Task: structure prediction
Amino acid sequence: EAHVFLGVEGFKTMRRDVLKHANGEHLMLGAISREPIVMPHFWTYFNKERIRLGIKMRTLHQQNTRDKPMRGEMMEMRFLPKDITIPTVINIYGDRVVNLLWKENYPVCFMLINKDISDSYRKYFEILWKISAKQQV
Result:
């Protein structure tokens, strides 16, 4: 199953889907910290709901976000090695994988719903997590 969500409202639909289907963990690969800037009120809402539902978030940020990483309760983050750049932010949760492309402040989300695919992406995330630098606070 596949879906495309366009614009800020489409992005919000995807984030609400995270709240429904994350099963306790939401992984983000290639995070660029655009969400808190483009939609700060929704970011606050999403985080409160995520925490209330007990969804832990682990993010692998791109190096160019060292000065503005997303922070929050029940959040752990690391930075990808400098030689790894990803044109999309990959969200992995439940049986879903969402490739998110930011065109300036316009998000485009491509969602795949398939347990085998999400499990495969999760393994890829874990390999990168192990080699990535921990966040210095």
